[in-house]
Amino acid sequence: MPPSRDRLYRTANLLALFTIGYNIIEGVVSVWLGASDETLSLFGFGVDSFVEVISGIGIWHLIRRIRANGGESRDEFERRALRITGGAFYLLTVGLAVSAGLSLFQHHRPTTTIWGIVVSLVSIALMWLLIRAKTRVGIALESPALLADAACSRACLYLSLVLLAASAGYELTGIGGCDALGALLIGYFAYREGREALQKAKGLTCSCCSCGG
Prior knowledge:
Elements: H1 5-36, H2 40-69, H3 76-105, H4 114-141, H5 144-173, H6 177-201
């Protein structure tokens, strides 16, 4: 017997709340460890996670509103959340680009990137599970908004892979540029996330193909 729509919406709501809570924890851990070990890619990954919290709150609000009233067009709260998210991602892009440039110029090397490997592996595992769960619920409810949220989690998985590659690359080679390159790639994804968030705030259709931690 297939689950009722009400049960599916409860599941979607719990998944949204879990995503918000996880991003907060991931952000705190990543920023703290990134600052302690002078790992720019991990620090940027953590800031990206904090920005994703704002986006996640918008998704949570959207799910509750759809469940209560139906209709997937965004209200002012969601559009405002998207505008804040987009602006924050643009600021993160500039910050990471400048910091990575200085890191390369000064030949900076992190103390260690082991924690970047650990954080990325945990994130990859959890994002994979979230993608499967969100996709199942989105298909069952025939909800483009929930499927788009699953696509954002898929993009977060890609970001985690970037962090893993940068962190493992440094540990294997000792080349500080690996960390800076990882930060630049995270900044690029943040730019795309910011652009898509602002497009969605304007009511334009776009696929969420690049998301943070």
